[in-house]
Amino acid sequence: MNLHDLDDEHRPTFTTGQAADILGVEQPFLRSLDSAGVVSPERSGGGHRRYSRHQLGQAERMRALFDEGYNLNAAQRILELEHELEQARREIAELQRRLGNE
């Protein structure tokens, strides 16, 4: 591992137990998100789930949406739409940057 790996939010670092502790949830909650395809952690050589910081953020957002009363399907769709909006904003910013440089 090098220093750049520490900054990689997609690097699978956390075990299910560590992820649950960080998020303040039970491990079955994380496994249910994996089963639903919301968060798909990588597997270690021994088959154990490994979560990235990015995935922890997704799981945390799902928990917040559940706490607000959304069901799995609605929360999943909201997460997808938020991701699409974030991507669109990045593309707009890039296009504006390009137009400003011409």
Description:
Keywords: Coiled coil, DNA-binding. This is MerR-like DNA binding protein. One of its GO terms (molecular function) is DNA-binding transcription factor activity. The model has no long low-confidence stretch (mean pLDDT 91). The chain has a single domain (8-101), classed as Multidrug-efflux Transporter Regulator, Chain: A, Domain 2, CATH 1.10.1660.10. The chain starts with a helix and ends with a helix. A hairpin with a 5-residue loop joins β1 (42-43) and β2. Strands 1-2 form a two-stranded antiparallel ribbon. Helices cover 66% and strands 4% of the residues. 14% of the residues are buried. The protein is mostly helical. α2 crosses α3 (27-35). The longest helix has 30 residues, at 72-101. It has helices at residues 3-7, 16-23, 27-35, 53-67, 72-101, and strands spanning 42-43, 49-50.
Task: Give the helix/strand layout.
Layout: H1 3-7, H2 16-23, H3 27-35, E1 42-43, E2 49-50, H4 53-67, H5 72-101
Antiparallel strand pairs: 1-2
Helix pairs in contact: 2-3, 4-5
Principal-axes shape call: globular
CATH architecture grouping? Orthogonal Bundle
Text of the CATH class? Mainly Alpha
The structural class is: mainly alpha
For the report, how would you describe the main beta sheet?
Answer: 2 strands, antiparallel
* Percent of residues in β-strands: under 5%
Succession of helices and strands:
HHHEEHH
Helix content: 55-70%
Mean pLDDT across all amino acids: 91
- Alpha-carbon distance between the termini? 41 Å
Which fold name is given in CATH as the topology? Multidrug-efflux Transporter Regulator, Chain: A, Domain 2
Q: Which parts are unreliable, with pLDDT below 50 for 5 consecutive residues or more? A: none
How many whole angstroms does the radius of gyration measure? 16 Å
The overall strand count is 2
Please give the count of helices: 5
Quickly count the domains: 1
Lateral strand order in the biggest sheet:
1-2
